[in-house]
């Protein structure tokens, strides 16, 4: 392990078919006034809403609802929730949904008692330290897998007016309830989008460094588990073992452990954030469309790791092949897997137009792992992603 680090993850996880039973235990630790944050209403159709409300009533909580959080959660909704927190002296936030709902709930907590003029600019754009002000604790009930927000500090918010999507670390949920069965009602599109989101989180941490790092072995194991279980889940979306493996891998992927003592990359995420700011596409699908062209562009600068990726993950036979051939074959295998699962692999399919590409490129950050790339290079990558 090349670099010193400190690790602390304060989120308590309740995992399994009966995990919701623990919500009552946790709610007793907090005050009476609860902000219940959720999305577009799917939890009402699948019965999760009624189960949660019943527990809240049993615990004699006063419930305030903030609903209709969208995928790629909007700054306006975050500020609406923040105002509800302050106006109603909320004691605790319960976020029930996928990563967008959880991200938005974290943002609501951070913004509620912010005393400056522009919380989004300060915290998300400029990444200023959090003020020493009141933060309302949150807990989560996860219904869609992918972001890992249930076990990390991240919060990604979209300023739809200025077309800026930005993320930063705020704080972890106090607890998260993970019942794999709660994800069964997600569409196949949502499921595979979340699967690639998880895969991308692992790759962003993996494709960096040239040392023999324990974290890389952890990432490889998680990645192989996701690929194995994804193939099963695509064929049988209610296979509990497969969906539970995917759910736990997704939480572990961003819990902090896989990236320890690594430099990391995160350029694919940086580009995708601006892609979805312009198209409002599903995050995981945007990552999928960008990843293969991006990695084909940078692989030579981290050739040893891409060769390892091809051999360890995709079992590429290197006999009679150059390292470059092996590395590219590994990326090809990833693309084949994505198509096999029904993932989106072109920007055109996500609603992007050629006219958007320069704006997306120029608003994306210039960063990268094995190779630092410029706006001009991002534009070339986007063109390769288009169709």
Notes on the structure:
This protein is α/β, with parallel strands linked by helices and about 375 residues long. The chain folds into two domains: about 10-180, Rossmann fold (3-Layer(aba) Sandwich), CATH 3.40.50.1970; about 190-385, Dehydroquinate synthase-like, alpha domain. It is built from 15 helices and eight strands. The protein has helices at about 20-25, 40-45, 50-60, 75-85, 100-110, 120-125, 190-205, 215-235, 240-255, 265-280, 285-300, 305-315, 325-340, 355-365, 375-385, and strands at about 10-15, 35-40, 60-65, 90-95, 140, 155-160, 165-170, 175-180. A hairpin with a 4-residue loop joins strand 6 (about 155-160) and strand 7. The chain is globular.
**What's the total number of strands?**
8
The figure for the number of domains is 2
| Mean model confidence by pLDDT | 96
Q: Which fold name fills CATH's third level, the topology of the largest domain?
A: Dehydroquinate synthase-like, alpha domain
Characterize the overall form.
globular
DSSP helix count? 15
> How are the strands of the biggest sheet laid out side by side?
1-8-5-4-2-3
Outline the fold blueprint.
Blueprint: E1 12-15, H1 22-27, E2 33-38, H2 42-45, H3 48-58, E3 62-66, H4 75-87, E4 92-97, H5 99-112, H6 119-125, E5 138-142, E6 154-159, E7 164-169, E8 175-178, H7 188-206, H8 214-235, H9 240-253, H10 267-279, H11 283-298, H12 303-314, H13 323-341, H14 357-363, H15 375-386
Parallel strand pairs: 1-8, 2-3, 2-4, 4-5, 5-8
Antiparallel strand pairs: 6-7
Helix pairs in contact: 4-5, 7-8, 7-9, 7-11, 8-9, 10-11, 10-14, 11-13, 11-15, 12-13, 14-15
